[in-house]
Each structure stands twice: as C-alpha cells, then as structure tokens.
Amino acid sequence: MLKVKRIYDKPSRDDGMRILVDRLWPRGVSREAARLDLWLKDIAPSDGLRKWYGHDPEKWPEFKERYTAELADKQESLEEIRALERQGTVTLLFSSKEEKLNNAVALREFIAKSTKERRGRK
Fold first, then answer.
1. 65 and 59 in contact (C-beta within 8 Å)?
2. Is CB count within 10 Å lower at the N or C end of the chain?
3. Residue ranges making up the domain that contains 78
4. How far apart are CA 20 and CA 41, in angstroms?
5. Contact 36, 18 (CB under 8 A)
6. pLDDT of residue 122 exceeding 90
7. What is the reported pLDDT for 118?
8. Is residue 82 part of a domain?
9. Total-model pTM
10. Is 42 exposed, middle or buried (0-12, 13-18, 19+ CB in 10 A)?
C-alpha cells in the first residue's frame, strides 16, 4: 500500500517505510522527529517546476503533466519505491501545507497508474 502524509504529522506504526519525496528539508523538523527511512530528493520535482507551480490550484493539471514527464527519467527511484511497496506499506512524506495538490499526491497517482499498466501488459 502506498500512502501520503505531511511530514509534520505525527509518525505512526501504520506508516510502514517513511520516504521523504521533497527536494528541500522541511523547516522546523529534526531528523529524529521525522523518523525517515529514506530521503529521495531526486524524485522530487525540479526546482524550476516547483517554483513555477507555487501550489497554484489552477496550475495543478499542468503541474502533474510536467512532473510526469520529469518522472520518466527517474526509473531507478521509482523502482525502489515499487520494490519497497511490494514488501509492505510505504508512506510518501511531503512538507507542503497543501495536502491534496502536492508532489507526493502526484507521485502516488503516477506510481499507481504505471503499476496498473505494467500488470496489464503481463
């Protein structure tokens, strides 16, 4: 199972493997409090895309398209997440105040869709 959660929310046993998917370290969170298992900076949107988007809800559809294009070059990190998910629950952590329109949500959607497509080809 692949979940999404703000890094500022209290860690839980139900989180399973906790992976930060932001390029920048979240303000005000110590490494101990974060209880991270992995930090995949490289899978985060590029700085240019992140700054362009700026969490503007009207840009969300185009942000997802652009981010999906960037993810095409991140197969190693994507496969790492898929492999961990096959072993159990994985929680993708993000720091944005925007809980529904952020890179972790877009990443979860991309992984779910691409995993379903892969299964369909087998």
1. no
2. C
3. 2-116
4. 8
5. yes
6. no
7. 66
8. yes
9. 0.93
10. exposed
Question: What one-letter code names the amino acid at 6?
Answer: R
* pLDDT reading at 20 higher than 90: yes
The answer to whether residue 121 is domain-embedded is no
pLDDT in tens, 36-95: 999 999 999 999 999 999 999 999 999 999 999 999 999 999 999 999 999 999 999 999
Average pLDDT along the chain: 94
Is 122 a member of any domain?
Answer: no
Q: What is the 3-state secondary structure (H, E, C) of the chain?
A: CEEEEECCCCCCHHHCEEEECCCCCCCCCCHHHHCCCEECHHHCCCHHHHHHHCCCHHHHHHHHHHHHHHHCCCHHHHHHHHHHHHHCCEEEEECCCCCCCCHHHHHHHHHHHHHHHHHHHC
Residue 93 located in a structural domain: yes
Phi, psi torsion values for 8, nearest 5 degrees: -80, -15
How many structural domains compose the chain? Answer: 1
For residue 64, give every residue at least 6 positions away whose Cβ sits within 8 Å of its Cβ, in sequence order, or none: 106, 109
